[in-house]
Model the fold of this input.
Amino acid sequence: MKILYIAELVGKAGVYAFKKGLPELKKRYRIDFVIACADGATGGNGLGRNHAAYLHKLGANVLTTGECCFYKKDLTENIEKIPYVLRPANFNPEAPGFGSRVYKVGNDKVAVAVILGQSSFGRVHGNNPISMLPSLLERLHQETPYVIIDFHAEATAEKRTLCFAADGRCSAMIGSHNRVQTADEKVMPGGTAVITDAGRTGSAESIGGCEIKSRLQEYFTGIPDWTRDAWAGPELQGVLIDIGRDGKALSIERIREKVPEAPQPETTAEDTVET
Done:
């Protein structure tokens, strides 16, 4: 089973890079299943309902989110009806949506779950990720040996800790949120593929995928500005994971796919797609 995980899409450039880069990657690596982190796809923070539908149509089998999962009201109000969008599994059970699901892939099944870290998130708080991990994985393993976890966390130490806690219990533990691709991908002794952060999809010449000048200004003034898109050096980043029939990872490979510069900022699905 070949799983392609697309690192966090950031803004319109992220959606553009996903659209341009995914078809070639699927053809080159003969991908069976595509997971995309879309926590920053709409305006750099959150995921709108139209963008979710558009990215699914472009080829994302599953869209994962994180601390921004409920930032867009149109998605929050409809997330129960959208099986390909996942919010963190360690949220309060009363939160709308699903933190994990099992998806059909031909004659096989792939389980995907999102877990939110506890460090440095001020607006939302998830339950202890390590405490809930064993029961979550046991439940998913009852349906399939292929289990992928997206650990959306700020602190590197917290991510590394969960990688060790998950070794031998799932096929892959992929870090997200920091939007900077790390070079520590490996298959752990127990057969779990891990990486601290898969990176970002969008402008590589930016600060976290956002326009440089506006991000610098925020540090000086304390006033956030998410209205300016960065477009320079668009890339699709992520990881390719090859998994054996027993659910243990055979390999993990970092992906950095440059895409053509956009001649001008595109009108994206959030502006045009009706769902």
